């Protein structure tokens, strides 16, 4: 039976034939033709871009995929509170520009007064300017703010990161509200006490956290009839008297870790995180064994005031002087308000013939490291954190006043998929 052709309208050939086998063969032929045209266009574009590298760069900039992270929206407010989703770097830059404009206007006004030669107006201006000239506290705060802004304007490294967190962008409101967390007198070697919830069985997981956080020790909360079931506030008082800088309480459900409470001593704040996707190091394919060296710390993509505060907490849990000979690095990468915790060991080796050279954030090869590659080996444990609540004191019961709960996650916060809190 020959092919039956029906219909005189437009459309592909596969829709104008009634024979199934012939329709299938036409579809295969059309697909092959389309793939052939794409392949020829790809090779033709490659030849053109080899002759003109600028066209390739322009094409890559234009063809960037529109992900949810790229569609992220910010609150258009001049507020550095914990509930506002503002980019601290952009906010600081805008405030610096406004301050520079105000200084220029003030300088222009002073120049006009000098040129006018009006003694009365000049005397009035001098009297008015004496309101805050002798205030030592204001001058100290202004000097500290200028020093912090100067540190924030740091030079880029050889391979600048586009996601690294700059803790010098901390707003003054957070420093005033949490002075112990942002104190310059913090110990260079933090001391962390790790424990679990009551009647918990997560002893092995707590020991793994001891290997992740340097200079930490695990004390189980005994559940036998002679044991004392101390509260978190009692444990915090005990730990503060013994020079501990933080407490971690690992929470359990059905013999799995589901939460982590971090208390900054001596008086808070308290961060409540939920834990998901917990994987021990020995269950990771190709894993390595960690050593006792103090690791390096990478804090990525913490941009809002709440994110900077969270990054500052983790920054206070690690020593300020890592041991580079151990070649260990702990990464806390924030993406869409989920904090991915990873620990790796790195090694620098010779680049293989099949590998590409190291490129910078602009996509160009870095000079001086053309023949070097970095190898990674994950050590574990691997897990994901999500901030649920922030209390000013030691837990909800230990906080007092109307601002006891500084921030709390609610389901309606994820109604807009392009707005994030960290």
From TrEMBL:
All copies of the Brix domain together span 190-396
A Pfam family of the record is: Brix
Ranges of biased composition (kind: Acidic residues): 116-126
Per UniProt, the ranges with Basic and acidic residues bias are 30-75
Kindly give the InterPro entries that the UniProt entry links to this protein.
Brix (IPR007109), IMP4/RPF1 (IPR044281)
Q: Which PANTHER family match?
A: RIBOSOME PRODUCTION FACTOR 1, U3 SMALL NUCLEOLAR RIBONUCLEOPROTEIN PROTEIN IMP4
Q: What is this protein called?
A: Anticodon-binding protein
Q: Which organism is it from?
A: Pseudomassariella vexata
Q: What is the lineage of its organism?
A: Eukaryota, Fungi, Dikarya, Ascomycota, Pezizomycotina
